[in-house]
């Protein structure tokens, strides 16, 4: 019998005010897999993330994590079940330090998403702080961990957000446009870090427009267009697929020319 996928979507559908933005989407993400969710602007990628993490309820279909249906669980319970994510726009606590932001991620491990809203003054210092500092260092972040996040450059803040999500030790790490706004060196470094995380066992689901980055990080892609899955397979397969080229990658290649 094939191993149970870590994440399984089937028939997932969502409409906003009569407009169906995700239609009958299904895919499996095996444990340890690195799946890229790609497609043109407005294709429904972030909405799929929001449906998996529980920001919105699904209208139809099912989402399973580790074989258990999670579609009807509140976001906090999904965090406890092992899902962590980053957002398209950075959502760090700007007035806290880098290490304190990562500690909030560690706290979410035990307490769920609501922990991100609680004061951290009470949190145990020693061991957790050391672990948070180690995570920042492992991510190749050469910063003073005590630096207030608002004072740090954008590329660094983006990476701290990934580290914070990782600090929850999720089974599934979902990253929404992690490379957006990064320079080529930062992008390459982030790809290296994500491959390392994946090699250590974390399953990745990544929404990203930088196809070079997706190619570096992901072992498979699902392509969405107008809320529907139009392709699933390798990046090379996606590049060669006529439907995908017409919907997305052709335009991307023309933009790059
Ligand atoms: N809360 C909402 N209410 C109404 N419409 C929404 C809502 N969230 C998303 N949409 C619509 O759903 C569609 C899909 O949006 P979504 O953000 O999921 O696309 P995307 O593929 O992530 O795009 P991008 O690459 O630009 O981030 C868009 O038409 C968007 O306007």
Task: Describe, in plain words, how this protein is organized in 3D.
This protein is an alpha/beta fold and 257 residues long. It has a domain at 1-75 and 209-257: 3-Layer(aba) Sandwich (Rossmann fold). It has 9 helices and 10 strands. The chain has helices at 45-53, 75-81, 98-111, 126-138, 154-167, 184-199, 211-217, 235-240, 242-256, and strands spanning 7-16, 19-29, 34-38, 60-65, 68-69, 83-85, 172-176, 203-207, 220-225, 228-233. The strands form 2 sheets. Strands 6-7-8-3-9-10 form a 6-stranded mixed β-sheet, with helices on both faces. The chain has a 4-stranded antiparallel β-sheet with strand order 2-1-4-5, with helices on one face. Strand 7 (172-176), helix 6 (184-199) and strand 8 form a beta-alpha-beta unit. Residues 112-119 have low confidence and may be disordered. The site of adenosine-5'-triphosphate has 10 residues, from helix 1.
CATH class value of the domain at 1-75 and 209-257 = Alpha Beta
Radius of gyration: 18 Å
Classify the secondary structure makeup into a structural class: alpha/beta
Helical residue percent band:
25-40%
Low-confidence stretches: 112-119
Shape category: globular
- The CATH architecture classification of the domain at 1-75 and 209-257 is 3-Layer(aba) Sandwich
Strand arrangement, largest sheet?
6-7-8-3-9-10
Kindly state the number of beta strands: 10
The CATH superfamily of the domain at 1-75 and 209-257 is identified as P-loop containing nucleotide triphosphate hydrolases
CATH topology of the domain at 1-75 and 209-257: Rossmann fold
Q: Tell me the distance between the termini.
A: 46 Å
Order of helices and strands: EEEHEEHEHHHEHEHEEHH
Are any ligands bound, and if so which? adenosine-5'-triphosphate
Count the DSSP helices. 9
> What's the pLDDT, averaged over the residues?
88
Largest sheet: 6 strands, mixed
Residue fraction in strands: 15-25%
